Amino acid sequence: MSVLIAVVSVLSVSILAQEVRQEVSVDGTGLFTKKSDGNGVQNRATDSGGFLLGYRYHINRWLSAEADYGYGRNTQVYSGNVPGRVQANLHQITGSAVVHLPGFGRSIRTRWPEAAA
Question: How far is CA 4 from CA 7, 8, 9, in A?
Answer without folding.
Answer: 5, 6, 9
